[in-house]
């Protein structure tokens, strides 16, 4: 009876997993830009990385993109590299959103979801901060004023390390 | 008997239609037409009619965000 119950529960079990926790190694981001150029970003190569996952159909992502672009402008000189990953099914939607908002960010286009799968993404939007050694420092899934302030404090700290 | 049970379990395992939609795969679920009430005004009008007819109201959900704190 126990075996039956176990098998039944397994058959309905979901495959949910936790997002990469702080302290984990950040996987390499490999893919193509919106224009189709191959690109590879290897965490741990001396830069602090801010990786933002977004899609045009995700309202909080749309709201947060200008702030991510602002972070890039503010901290680029101090060693922050911003990389965004777009998961739209059609590349035109991502391009349209960027042209509508006027946001200029490096984008890896990943409609198959290989990068979010490797980062075990739990929600959209999600932002990962990775330190110079390639270790995940913070994972954020919202763009509330408090969350933004907290992430900015962590960016300051990691850049000063 | 055991063989039948195993076959039954196999069928149950294979016929499970549950799958997890990953966060980055929700593009089509996020469309407005996928909402329970894609036309809020029309839904409100229907509820108003229902309330008037039944002389009762409520039970259509809550105004909070699902945290259970209200």
Task: Give the SSE map.
The complex is a heterodimer of chains A (161) and B (70).
Chain A: H1 2-12, E1 29-32, E2 38-41, E3 48-54, H2 59-75, E4 80-86, H3 91-101, E5 107-109, H4 114-118, E6 126-130, E7 136-140, H5 145-160
Parallel strand pairs in A: 3-4, 4-5
Antiparallel strand pairs in A: 1-2, 3-6, 6-7
Chain B: H1 2-15, H2 40-54
Task: Give a structural overview.
The complex is a heterodimer of chains A (161) and B (70). By secondary structure, chain A is of the alpha/beta class. Chain A is built from five helices and seven strands; from the N terminus they run H-E-E-E-H-E-H-E-H-E-E-H. Chain A has helices at 2-12, 59-75, 91-101, 114-118, 145-160; strands at residues 29-32, 38-41, 48-54, 80-86, 107-109, 126-130, 136-140. In chain A, the strands form two sheets. Chain A has a five-stranded mixed beta sheet, covered by helices on one side. Chain A has a two-stranded antiparallel ribbon with strand order 1-2. The longest helix of chain A is centred in the middle third of the chain and has 17 residues, at 59-75. Chain A is globular, with a radius of gyration of 17 Å. The model of chain A has no long low-confidence stretch (mean pLDDT 89). Chain B is an all-alpha fold. Chain B has two helices and no strands. Chain B has helices spanning 2-15, 40-54. Chains A and B meet through helix 1 of A and helix 1 of B.
